[in-house]
Amino acid sequence: MSTEKKAKNPSIWAPVIMVGIISTGMSAGMFYMLDKKRVGGVVEAAPVVIEAPRYVEIKPFTINILSSERRQRMLYAGVTIKVADEQTHTFLEGRKREIRSRLIQMMSESNTEEIVTPEGKDELNKKIMGIFDKPFTENQPLLQLTEILFTDFIVQ
Q1: Is the N or the C terminus of the chain less surrounded, counting Cβ atoms within 10 Å?
Q2: Distant-in-sequence, close-in-space partners of 155: CB < 8 Å, separation ≥ 6
Q3: Long-range contacts of range 35-44, CB-CB < 8 Å, 24 or more positions apart?
């Protein structure tokens, strides 16, 4: 007799388990369909905000430089400084004349043969970055310089 009772119990639980499985599946389906981040079954990625680059453009200038034969040559150069943040941009925008003066002094010491090669331009680029090592003011913020760009570069 005890075997008859055990046989009846599984048949009672089968519909309860089926209702639980179906309701769980329906809940998961409704959650998936009502999720506002999903469009067409694909999860939308959060929009990537790409900030526009910030540049500080220094007016082009012409300077005399010496060649290896000690002849006077002319260098016409334009420099643009790419910066990483607004604080650096604002600070440098207010000091363009000082930057230009430092550039002229530093570049006038260059040799023609040194700066016309790609390696020479790379070295000049490093020297330009070096002019920012000396502070412009006492309470100068940390300058976030990204890159030095030559916008004009003619040697005659």
Answers
A1: N
A2: 65, 73, 74, 75, 76, 112, 115, 116
A3: none
Does pTM surpass 0.85?
Answer: no
Find where tokens 């990625």 sit. Answer: 45
What Å distances lie between residue 60 and 44, 57, 75, 126, 152, CA to CA?
46, 9, 10, 19, 7
Q: Note the pLDDT tens digit of each residue in 50-99.
A: 888 999 999 999 999 988 888 899 999 999 999 999 999 999 999 999 99
CA-CA-CA-CA torsion for 102, 107, 110, 116, nearest 10 degrees? 150
d(CA 21, CA 153): 74
For residue 95, give the nearest of 151, 52, 152, 137 by alpha carbon. Answer: 137
What backbone phi and psi angles, to 5 degrees, belong to 134? -80, 125
